[in-house]
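Re: beginner question about structure tokens

> Can someone show what the tokenized structure looks like for a real chain? I only ever see the sequence side.

Sure, here's an example I had lying around. Input first:
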Amino acid sequence: MKKPLGETCHFVGGGTPSKRNPAFYEGDIPWATVRDMREEILTRTQFRISREAVNGCATNVVPADNVVIATRVGLGKVCLLNQATAINQDLRGIVPKHENLDVRYLFRWLQSVAHLIEAEGTGATVQGVKLPFIKSLQIPLPTLPEQKRIVAVLDEAFAGISTAVANTEKNLANARELFESYLNHSFLRLPEGERIERLRSLCGQKTITYGVIKLGPDVPDGIPCLRTSNVRRLRIATNGIKRISPELSSQYSRTVLEGGEVLVSVRGTLGGVAVASGAMRGWNVSREVAVVPVDQEKILPPYAAYSIATRESQDWLVGVQKGVAYTGINLMDLRELTVKVPNMKTQLRIVAQLDEMAASWSALRVLYERKLDALTELKQSLLQKAFSGELTAAPRDEIESALA
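And the corresponding structure tokens:
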């Protein structure tokens, strides 16, 4: 038997106390936003508000041992509450009307339909879903003992998946740490006598600059334009590349790539540095990315990229970054970054060694990320099976298969 969720549950709305009265945020009532929904059980919140704040705005307190779901920011995210908690306007509390609906069963079922709620979202700047849609979702209602059995099976399976995810993430972190350690050590043990150069002096007659300021709409078959989302740490991700009009790209001819330039993220997400390949000739970059056209008679592009990626260089760049809400590195500062420049033979040796290590690390990264994706897909698959009557026991074999 299935029923619309609106027939089986009460819905509790939320709101935000006025920030004009800071005292409202000095109470003892937990007040949750989407940012607090980090785990399956919402155990703590950034803010605690007063009873006066609750009475003076649209927020409501959701009783403990119930469910909250995001209906605006973070659509479909769902958590259990371990204590009575007030919520903001981006959340809804869901409270069963009757004892024949187990709260943990409701929680797991909401996880299984989260993708439907997310797909229903509308809005240009803030995605939201209308409450009637959520209320119309059909929840299967087996007997209470069967609900508890399904929850027990899923809890056991998800505990196994969580352990597998934690172990995989640890292995991924260990592999990353090994490569980073080798990278930093390679530049610490350079032979004495190497030159110390400013990055600007390694670019010959050219200068370090950034690219297109306003990319405009995506243009099919246009010029690929790399952003910070593409310029990762020592690699360029080619998925999700923005394409701009040839006319716009030609206005920024100074950053049209030839191949061999070092690219550095200087706005927003910092730390990205990679070398443009020859296949990227004719591409361009956004304002978020600095193009460092190194003189290859002075320094090898991959050697320069590895140098900029070291902890010493990254710490220096963090020290000169500016801005609060939107951090960035000024080109004048980037040009002053120092680089240890040994002879070309030493550069070639270091690059060869680091390339080999990077290839091993990349292969491990792909392997572990594939396993994490498989575990995520398995979790969603189990939820779908659980509420269609196909899940009878915790699938240990499927978890082991995802890790193979």
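Each token stands for a local structural state, so reading them left to right follows the chain. The first strand starts at residue 2 and ends at 4.
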